[in-house]
Amino acid sequence: MKRKRTKSVLTAVVLAAALAVGGCGQSAKNAAGTAESSQDLLAQIQERGKLVIAMEGTWAPWTYHDEAGDLVGFDTEVGQLIARELGVEAEFVEGEWDGLFAGLDGGRYDLVINGVEITEERAQKYDFAEPYGYIHTALIVGSDNTDIRTFEDLKGKTTANSLNSTYQYLAQDYGATVSNVDSLGETLEMVLAGRVDATLNADVSFYEYLGEHPDAPLKVVALTEEASKVAIPVRKGEETKSLLEALNQAIQNLKDSGELAAVSEKYFGSDITSEDGSGSEH
Which of the chain's ends, N or C, has fewer CB atoms near its CB within 10 Å? Predict the structure, then answer.
């Protein structure tokens, strides 16, 4: 099946704007039309030829640095593929989790691609593209821990997680006291050192960690029943509508071509890009 490229979306927008401006015949309205067009984020991205994507760069296998120091990972390659679909280059900016959204809000970044789960609170502030991943949250403790078997057992216990992450809020909802750290590695180190009782994270991320550290005395004692939807947040507003449409088309193209599933298999060893194969079977 021939792919519908996102450039066609931009072409339609530009042509419609040109027809509207041409009908008025006044220079003042021409200027206004130009100003309005320049506010369209997709048009800006394609004019500058690059898509600015924010991510942590410390969360394997989503976004991290390999032994050569290169930025790699599932989300890194997803960002590159989406940029290709938009006809531009991907430019990555790394930062701490909480700062990614501040940069998105301030217009410093076009997108955040960093395993962002859709929540009711986030959906009130951002529009989300179609999900490109489905994951479960794992409750992780030391191998010798017998006190925590379920999420309900977190009441009165301590956990470590990134500031303002889904995992922090879930742990707090169950009554845990949360210490904030920057990376999955740090959270697991705190569990191993006995500084906290547990941590919560994506199941696929923990299984990838175990693949690298098979002797680590850690275990998963519980998983959320429903898969969380991972998607790309976009600032709400008229200026982002065409970008959201283009993202949805790009994600569908990548699913149809099998490229999205192939990248998932590369980094997770399973296809987390469809709800039926969310990778929790590890």
Answer: N
Residue with tokens 């994600």: 251
Class of domain 6-133+229-269 (CATH, top level): alpha beta
The structure tokens 């890009």 sit at: 273
**Residue 205: which of 256, 166, 244, 156 has the closest Cα?**
166
Q: Specify the amino acid at residue 208.
A: E
Q: What are the sequence ranges of the domains in the chain? A: 6-133+229-269, 137-225
Q: Which residues pair with 133 in a beta bridge?
A: 230
For the stretch 102-138, pLDDT in tens is 999 999 999 999 999 999 999 999 999 999 999 999 9
Q: Residue-wise over 171-182: b if at least 16 C-beta within 10 A, else e? A: beebebebbbbe
What are the tens digits of pLDDT across the range 171-215?
Answer: 999 999 999 988 888 999 999 999 999 999 999 989 988 888 999
